[in-house]
Amino acid sequence: MPTIPYYDWIAHHAGRRPRQLAIHDLHTARTLTYADLDARIGRLTAALAARGITRGDRIALLAPNCAEYFELQFACGRLGAIMLPLNWRLTVPELEYILGDSSPKLLIHDRSFATQASALSASLLEIDHERPDSAYERALAEAGPPPAPVSLTHDDIGMVMYTSGTTGHPKGAIITHGMVFWNCVNLGIPALITPETVQLVVLPLFHTGGLNCYANPVLHAGGTIVVMRNFDPGQALDSISDPALGITHFFAVPAPYQFMMQHPKFQGADLSRLRIAGVGGAPCALPILETWIARGVPLVQGWGMTETSPAGTMLDAADAIRKVGSAGKAMMHTAIRVVDDEGHDVPAGGIGELLIKGPNITPGYWNNEAATQKSFTDGWLHTGDAARLDEEGFVYIVDRWKDMYISGGENVYPAEVENVLFQIPAVADAAIIGVPSERWGEVGMAVIVRKPDQALAESDVIQHCLGRLAKFKVPQSVTFVDVLPRNATGKVLKRELRMQYVGQGAPAIS
Q1: The AMP-dependent synthetase/ligase domain covers which part of the protein (predicted)?
Q2: CA-to-CA distance for 170 and 406, rounded, in angstroms?
Q3: Could you give the CA distance from residue 262 to residue 259 in angstroms, rounded to a whole number?
């Protein structure tokens, strides 16, 4: 019997707890035990090998959330191939750049993306959950015996995840098998993940937050993930409330929590079974944290990015209320620093750039040595996030370093102003960007979505802020919109707002 490679925890659990439920797909109502999942991974491994896929080859996946993400991830591991999850919100030209940069041998796609897939690749394998004889299922059914698993190390590449970036083309962050493993170790313990864990997965699985917070750690522990095809706040609340599903864990960026708490079902939802509700990906407004605390669910904050696998810091559940607003401390096998522009450590309370180092950090970017060299100093990754440490060493993510603007010589961090805006009852959504000012260099512009049937004027917003913020932080103008642009994980796309209001020759505010 061949030795099972270290990375293949699905094979491990199939041997130890074969009847344990591994994945429950809400969209298809399909359930897979660990034995089922292991068998399907084996058949996919054989099908890919029959197509000539070998060690180091890339395989792209373009699909909404589904069990096939994990089938492909572990099939790639058994072959030594590299998984390439694609952001389905990107346009064909954007995807063309990614595929041109990564050169996958095969594109597996959901039927809903057939048009895009046909424009991107000649080598396709279609998933169609409406047809039991889809090309994907036929490939699995017709597969012969799988080849023996290859021997890999922690340094071998398991995935390449392309980050959205703020300018230019996206960068392919290299994700090693070691990074995924160390994320399971780092995150699994403080997130209280055990074989009894049942997590509702709502973030897109092409994103590290969906795949690794906490889906992979849950599978690593032998627990169960309940997969939602696309996030819907009402359906998420129904699922969490359903005792038959028994959801114990949930993770999202701030936006889904915001949309859920604004949903009519929120007050009546049964949240009593939640052991951990994690939030990360962007600074979380205090009104969101306070609303969930009032329902008995402290949101456990964390911080990370694609390049950190992603868990970099996490706030232990015991400190969730005492340190509201903090992203916690560094994970067990990770180190962090907060430094100034000269690279010197900033004293407690000071704001600087967050740096991170450890075995969970990417070795670099695919086909982009220049970006790799630029991102590291003496092995420390520059995160691009502005942060501060308090006297006890808890880290607070202030904002994206690049989102900060300078008004009259003073640094303004939009997240701080947005916290104040969310205190206005009529505000459904809000973002702050810096816009040119002839007098101050830059001043804040508030971009606000009103709640339905709520009246709110620019003067109301500014007056609210005047009593709660230093004068230089108060937005000088307010624009009302129907919706804020967001990416697939729910983060506000500040660069689109800046392009709309600044990049098209908007006049400076005097």
Answers
A1: 11-366
A2: 27
A3: 5
Domain positions in the chain: 1-8+30-152, 404-501
Into which CATH architecture does domain 1-8+30-152 fall?
A: 3-Layer(aba) Sandwich (3.40)
pLDDT tens per residue across span 126-170 = 999 999 999 999 999 999 999 999 999 999 999 999 986 544 578
Tracing tokens 């039991």 back to the chain, one arrives at: 132
The answer to whether the Cα torsion of 397, 398, 402, 403 is positive or negative is positive
Mean pLDDT of 449-476: 92
- Residue 308 phi/psi, 5-degree rounding, is -110, 10
Q: Is the peptide bond before 190 cis (omega within 30 degrees of 0)?
A: no
Identify the H or E element spanning 218.
helix 216-221
Contacts of 337 (CB under 8 A, 6+ apart): 345, 354, 355, 356, 380
Strand partners, 301: 279
Yes or no: say if 123 and 107 are a contact pair by the CB < 8 Å rule.
yes
pLDDT digit string (tens) for 56-91?
A: 999 999 999 999 999 999 999 999 999 999 989 888
Minimum mean pLDDT among 43-47, 175-179, 403-407: which range? 403-407
Place of tokens 């695919």: 366
Q: What percent of the chain has pLDDT over 70?
A: 96
The SS3 of residue 196 is coil
Cβ neighbours of 393 (radius 10 Å): 11
Cβ–Cβ < 8 Å for 414, 432: yes
Superfamily the domain 404-501 falls into: ANL, C-terminal domain (3.30.300.30)
Q: Which three-class secondary structure string do you get for 102-134?
A: HCCCEEEEEHHHHHHHHHHCCCEEEECCCCCCC
Identify the band that residue 399 occupies on the pLDDT scale cut at 50, 70 and 90.
confident
Closest CA to 170 of 161, 179, 178: 161
How much is the pTM?
0.85
Cis link prior to 214 (omega < 30° from 0)?
A: yes
